Amino acid sequence: MGRVLITWELGGGLGHLLPLRGLAGRLVDHGHFVSLAARDLVAAGKLFTGLPVCFYQAPHRIEPFKPDFDPPITYQHMLHNIGFGTEAGLVALTSAWRSIFTSCNPDVVIFDHSPIAMFAGRGMEFRKAMLGTGFTVPPTPLPIIRPWKNSGASDWTLRHRQTTSTANLVAARLGFPALDALDDIYEEATPFLCTYAELDHFGKRPSVNYIGITADSVGIKPVWPYGEGPKMFAYLKPGEYFHEAVSQLYKLRFPCIVFCSTLPHQDVRRLEGEFPSIVFCKEAVNLELVVQDCDIAICHGGHGFVARMLLAGIPVVSLPLQLEQTLLSMRLASSGAGVYLPTEHVSQLGAAINHVCSTSGFHKAAMEISETYSASFGEDAWQSVVSRVESNEPI
Description:
It is globular and about 65 Å long. It has helices at 14-29, 41-47, 75-84, 87-104, 115-120, 153-174, 242-252, 265-274, 287-290, 303-311, 323-335, 349-358, 360-373, 383-390, and strands spanning 3-8, 33-38, 53-57, 108-112, 127-132, 190-193, 209-210, 232-235, 256-259, 278-281, 296-299, 316-318, 338-340. The chain has a seven-stranded parallel β-sheet, sandwiched between helices. A six-stranded parallel β-sheet has the order 10-9-8-11-12-13, with helices on both faces. It is built from 14 helices and 13 strands. It has two domains: 3-214 and 378-390, Glycogen Phosphorylase B (Rossmann fold, 3-Layer(aba) Sandwich); 232-373, Rossmann fold, CATH 3.40.50. With 395 residues, it is of the alpha/beta class. 43% of the residues are buried.
């Protein structure tokens, strides 16, 4: 069959690798030769064990991150910061990607959050698709990413042109087509969005292939503590807010599991003594089992977690830590299926949970999303991607 290269350039964690593992498995089952250019080869190697995949190290920026735009207001600003603003660095990264393309000689490349790889692939003859959430597969024209800081627009056009000019110096040097604007990076590839319209970070888009999320059965069985009231599952990360968040959960006296994989073992023991009615867990918990009993979820607004909870009709309270999570939390609130609570207001977490639990509208909105999409959940979300890979149509 065909040669398929999957790329992962930006972002971290299993949120990228788990879906790519599922897609790679389906492609291998269909007889395709699959290669993976991964940002984190060690994590990829562990997760892809047993799959006959050829690995490459994905070129990406690794020097200390000093953004020229801080904070970035537009998607173009973000692209500038991650590598498009520096000619020498962009030449090196682009050249490295083109060397991988030459070595791999793919028929199809599927890009996951890989803007420099997509730039490097311009003018090359392989077919192209891009895969990801609404944030990593942006709409064009490229959007504003901090609408609450929408000022200084008169300067943006000039700065965007300067970034495009830098990219075009690299394109001319390496002999591939110039850009009219940075938007052109995304216009050669067919988008497949692993999300739902309600959770698209930039709002619902017409004529876009929303393929949804796939089931993830990785992890241990949840062990709920004894107690009365709604069962709470919290997926949190350590930080200044963390102790107050856990205190707020404890005051409710509802059965609660807190999953925090990066907590040191000594902190887990200390917290278990301080908050004896809460189960603290460092190991990944099987979400397919969590949703069977959970009544309300608390998290930072990670896309996969929020989507899985809503598919089960479970409302969510979100305390985002970064931009992508903030945009998703805003969409969550707009859907009516949850609450967006900035971390500086973490002292209101208990009140927010009580409000969600006592207000039928949140559960109703979550159930409406569940009823719309849960019937297709668990089916092969990759079928449309694999079908396009195997078709003779341009991707």
